[in-house]
Amino acid sequence: MPTNPAAVPPESSDEPHVPGVPSTVTPEVAEPVEPREPAPPKGDQSGPATGSPTGAPTGLPQEAVAQQGEWLTTAQGDRMHDTDHSLKAGPRGPVLLQDHHLREKIMHFDHERVPERVVHARGAAAHGVFTAYGTASGVTKAAFLAKDAATPVFVRFSTVLGSRGSADTVRDTRGFATKFYTEEGVFDLVGNNIPVFFIQDAIKFPDVIHAGKPHPDREIPQAQSAHDTFWDFVGLHTEATHHTLWNMSDRGIPRSYRMMEGFGVHTFRLQNAAGETTLVKFHWKPKLGVHSLVWEEAQLAAGADPDFHRRDLADAIEAGAFPEWELGIQTFPDTPEQTFEGIDLLDPTKIVPEELAPVQPIGRLVLNRNPSNYFAETEQVAFHVGHLVPGIDVTDDPLLQGRLFSYLDTQLTRLGGPNFGQLPINRTHAPVNDMLRDGMHQTAVHQGVAPYRPNSLDGGCPFQAGAAQGADIEVPVPLPASRKVREAPESFDDHYSQARLFWRSMTPVEQEHIIGAYSFELGKCYEQAVKERALLTLAHIDERLCSEVATALGLPAPAPDAGSDDGLVSPALSQLGQEWPTEGRNIGIVVAPGADPDGVRALREAVFAADMVPLVIAPAGGTLDGVTVQRTFATARSIEFDALLVAGVPAPAADALPVRDAKTGVRGTDIEPRLALLLGEAYRHGKAIGGWAGAEAALTAAGVPQDAPGVVLGGSGTEVFEQLTTLLRSHRVWDRFPAAS
Ligand code: HDD
């Protein structure tokens, strides 16, 4: 019998509420549920589906759930009565070698870790469903892109440089990898949130990663590009200029995984049922728009909540605010030159501006279920650009070609052998009948005696399929008549024109952020030559960019060398200038004792009704005037909130610092310093701020001018909230940033 009452199996067999729909069983998306706080772990609840203590809520089939039965056992199923004491020769005596349970438990623990990914080690993932519009059927025969086809997916987002435990909000490129479990096999779209790459040839990948990772002597800095070796590399490899500029833009610090674009980067080749081919680039367009943090927020979040993006994704899905993207393609004729409007489609440092080739929507992705076990799913998922289905093929982009080797190879070390495809998260949903056998971690029990072809002993099975049976037959692309060389094509030599296009397409406030980012990153470098070389690169992009960064570094700006350009601008590259849905945004509500509790309750309802998340912030936890408090002044930090509403002025703490009235200079309107910090940061970061029921004093004390753009006062809480919602559609109050005025 269990000795600890807490270990008694729960009697209830009620299935716990799980937001989202298991993608393995049905593609329908559940009705969004009311946003709420993340639920506590569900580990102590039983469920009828599996009869296991932890398996029921996962939506996984019985065989994928490790735990069965109610009693603690060894790995061999031997029931245990005590896992808290080693077997000893007397209570004070030595431990006996015969204690198998002790040895098994510690042996297994000693080997719990697998090597982290050599890049993209830090990530978060979710299950979902992809539903095709059918609009791609003219260019591809891929079955999952046929009209209304619904395909389960697993998507993993990541940073590139940091280790598994590093912070989410560092300045970096983000991975956006999607596994489509199609009826024709797995298709992986292994992309990034930036449409270009640092290098043009995969043979340079170890170099760029060695340069970006921490210095090998001290192993610092973690998850940063702000150091000498990174800037040494990009200064010496001018092909990296375009991608580096994207990284230094707001794209390098996304607000949320839910608010990122995704790009397949390379050009792919599609083939339709008639055998015709089309070149395409894949784009993911987020329903909520593309939004970013400001740099100070990103830095604060790295300390205050290193799991910022991971938490945001899981909380949103749990609250029923399912993240959504549209998949789109840009299409190009498959000509022998493989260029479009003079742009080399095989060069992964180039985009094709959307104004030249519009992105055509072909389907919708909804993420609706969180993983139930990080290791089994998010850590063990193995993506591969070579996981393709009939109708989608690769091109000769030399970066893509090298990736085709790397993604298979890396799993041998990371997942311990060639059978990683059998791990539940990696299993295709199509029938498998291969002739791969044995090897480390083999879990299949293969039948028959003849895993070779042709054979006469297993009835000739398995049989080879033809086109009529949906076989994946290579597109017979003609090869260029050429010679064996280690060379890049001449067109790959243009390293600056698209960096200029990107810079020109930014609004003034976005350009200011880029100048700030270069100034910060290069300011963290020590080597004079590295900084000077970086400035030489900037001189090729824009004179002002170069001179302002040079001023920040205290160095002379080199002469501008802006080349001769077409002056093209691509408004689609800017994140500003449109309005976006506000679903899933966090609204902080600062309350003081006695400050309109009914108004606060009504406001919470209004925020819920707008599909946003209200988080009440009070001096202490518990409830205040009957309103549940979610955050206290000790636990709240501005980074968490997209907008703040203040009801009343909290009483000053006994040790509060006196705060001077920003306008009058008069001392006396003291507020809690942590509240002053909260409001001051929200103001500085361009967030909408509202107040009612006597909030003016708190705002004044925090240095928030009442007549500043995006500060709304008066009326009721719900009226103020309505105005804040309008502001939130633009993500931030851009007028508060100096460059915007
Ligand atoms: Fe890569 C992981 C994206 C170039 C070698 N890559 C990895 C992941 C993403 C990308 C999103 C994480 C997948 C996951 O969540 O498990 N990589 C890209 C993009 C590239 C790119 C968009 C250029 C357009 N990668 C690239 C090159 C090479 C690699 C040129 C090697 C020659 N990438 C790897 C890898 C990783 C990986 C070492 C580490 C873990 C893994 O594959 O499974 O094989």
UniProtKB/TrEMBL annotation:
Decomposes hydrogen peroxide into water and oxygen; serves to protect cells from the toxic effects of hydrogen peroxide. SUPFAM superfamilies: Class I glutamine amidotransferase-like, Heme-dependent catalase-like. GO terms for molecular function: catalase activity. It catalyses: 2 H2O2 = O2 + 2 H2O. Residues 73-461 form the Catalase core domain. This is Catalase. PANTHER family: CATALASE (PTHR42821), CATALASE-B (PTHR42821:SF1). Gene3D superfamilies: 1.20.1370.20, 3.40.50.880, Catalase core domain. Keywords: Heme, Hydrogen peroxide, Iron, Metal-binding, Oxidoreductase, Peroxidase. Residues 1-61 are annotated as: Disordered. InterPro entries: Catalase, Catalase_AS, Catalase_clade2, Catalase_clade2_helical, Catalase_core, Catalase_haem_BS, Catalase_immune_responsive, Catalase_large_C. Its cofactor is heme. Its EC number is 1.11.1.6. Pfam families: Catalase, Catalase-rel, Catalase_C. Belongs to the catalase family. HPII subfamily. It comes from Streptomyces evansiae.
